[in-house]
Amino acid sequence: MLELQRNVIFGQFVDTGSPVHRLDVRIKLVATALLVVASFLVDGFLGFALLFPLLVVLQLVSRVPFGYVARGSSFFLFFLGIILVFQVFFYPGEAPQSSVLWQWGFLSISTEGLRFAAILGLRVLLLYHTTTMLMLTTSLVDLTNGLELLFGPLQKLRVPVNELVLVGVISVKFVPIFISEVERLSRAYTARGVPFDEGGPITRARRLGRLLVPVFVGGFRRADLLTTAMDVRCYRGGRGRTKLRRMEAGLTDWLVLLMVVVWVLAAWKLPGLLIA
Amino acid sequence: MIEVDGVSFAYRGGESDAVHALRDLDIQIEPGRLVAVIGHNGSGKSTLVKLLTAVLYPTEGGIRVDGVPVRHETRWEIRSRVSVVFQDPDDQLVMNRVADDVAFGPENLGLPREEIAERVESALEAMGIADISEKIVDDLSLGQKQRTAIAGALAMRPRYLILDEPTSLLPAVAATRLIEAARELNRREGMGVIHVTHSMAEAALFDRVIVLDTGRLVMDGPPSEVFRRAEELREIGLDVPLAASLASRLRSHGIPLEGDILTDADLRKSVFALPRSAGDSG
């Protein structure tokens, strides 16, 4: 049996009504963007050590159970693990301060390779956790309204911002639907004697391939139906649309943003100052 | 008034392998009526729904909604008068919070915020789901999702509400409740309801039943009249409601049941109203 829904949480929204959920969406988007930038700027264990408490705080305040996020990330972590192993083995290892610990043909493990893979892993984890938390704590309407506002200036360059944002947001909504479709189909196949959880990895992958065509056909059918449904509800792009929800950034929202800015700056600059 | 006048529709119209979904259809539906449209798969029901909401346009003939001809240029006008709810709520809910999804339509109409809020509230109340307005759609039961979808259509304040097989995925109890809610809307707001279904039992609850078969109108009248033609219905792959069919067989055995029998309740009433002697002799 394939159990995907519990193992992939991308695109889901967990409403706990926490302060993180109530944060103004524009502030939330900017803060997420800052953390994404930070994940590229920070280079060193000390920097990440400074940043990770922020994620812990975020996780705690959001009241989204950590177990839920961890279990929901197992697929992602599995792939990340494989990639990091490759990074270690295939690291060129020519840096002067690097020493080779083990070598066999073209495969080698060097101290610099280990360090590089570890930093890369931390970087991806930071990226993954912040964007996942954004999705888990933001409803689609908030996400749409926030993105539309942030990218609004692009409209002057005739970029169809409203349409692009809605398409993006709807595709996020479709991920869980697709996942449940894959699960449903795999159950139907299992009932007719296709064992998805037996055999080696290659056999399993090949069996999963059988699901591709029906899932895609189903996807197109759904997309078509949704288009019609939006059409009959008078959706004609962003033109003339009004909004039910009001966006209001209060003092708390700005303070949160300030905190994130300071925290990111500290993680970026402090390690350099301490060493120097 | 919805006027369907000599309408034919062919997918890939004009080509030699065109598939005719509707042929020479004439239907008039007065505002504020409860109409059921029945027919088996491929009878043209869904095509009719798409024509009435300006998703498709007739290959021949014309449709007018309250005097407005259904054309590409008038589609927004038509869609603000005619709302539709489809079979699977997962395919039509756009946003993931109940109130946000119900607001999607009115937001598209560009209404002021206060009016959107008022419409959302009254639509949620009409469907009896005001208590879940802040819930996440994914956490709802199928029946609640379907009610959300209908509330979304109601928030458009249409003159005609089309329900395109919205009950086919629901358990029987939820389906009955949905039909009751639609009848209530019709009673209170005078909204016309056009219910497309293949459940004969549901069709029996409407004022008028329109039967389609392979794109043609084959019967049109009150349910009592339509279901009396049980043989013809069976020939086109439809069945009369169980109560009606049981009643007609009881009658053929000489049991004098009174009145039009369409639903289980009708049958019960007639059976209890039988004179004692009729029961003893039968």
List the helices and strands and how they pair.
The complex is a heterodimer of chains A (276) and B (282).
Chain A: H1 19-22, H2 25-41, H3 45-62, H4 66-72, H5 74-90, E1 100-104, E2 107-110, H6 111-137, H7 140-151, H8 161-191, H9 201-232, H10 251-275
Antiparallel strand pairs in A: 1-2
Helix pairs in contact in A: 2-6, 2-10, 3-6, 3-10, 5-6, 7-8, 8-9
Chain B: E1 2-11, E2 19-29, E3 34-38, H1 45-52, E4 60-65, E5 68-69, H2 75-81, E6 82-85, H3 98-108, H4 113-126, H5 142-154, E7 160-164, H6 172-189, E8 192-197, H7 200-203, E9 208-213, E10 216-221, H8 223-228, H9 230-235, H10 242-252, H11 264-273, H12 276-281
Parallel strand pairs in B: 3-8, 3-9, 6-7, 7-8
Antiparallel strand pairs in B: 1-2, 1-4, 4-5, 9-10
Notes on the structure:
The complex is a heterodimer of chains A (276) and B (282). Chain A is mainly alpha-helical and 276 residues long. Chain A has 2 domains: 1-138 and 247-276, no CATH class; 140-245, no CATH class. Helix content of chain A is 69%, strand content 3%. Chain A contains 10 helices and 2 strands; from the N terminus they run αααααββααααα. Chain A has a two-stranded antiparallel ribbon with strand order 1-2. In chain A, α2 runs antiparallel to α6, α2 packs parallel to α10 (251-275) and α3 packs antiparallel against α10 (251-275). With 282 residues, chain B is an alpha/beta fold. Chain B has 2 domains: 2-240, P-loop containing nucleotide triphosphate hydrolases (Rossmann fold); 241-282, no CATH class. Chain B contains 12 helices and 10 strands. Chain B has helices spanning 45-52, 75-81, 98-108, 113-126, 142-154, 172-189, 200-203, 223-228, 230-235, 242-252, 264-273, 276-281; strands at residues 2-11, 19-29, 34-38, 60-65, 68-69, 82-85, 160-164, 192-197, 208-213, 216-221. In chain B, the strands form 2 sheets. Chain B has a 6-stranded mixed β-sheet, sandwiched between helices. In chain B, strands 2-1-4-5 form a 4-stranded antiparallel β-sheet, with helices on one face. In chain B, β7, α6 and β8 form a beta-alpha-beta unit. In chain B, α4 (113-126) packs across α5 (142-154). The longest helix of chain B is centred in the middle third of the chain and has 18 residues, at 172-189. Chain B is globular, with a radius of gyration of 21 Å. The mean pLDDT of chain B is 88.
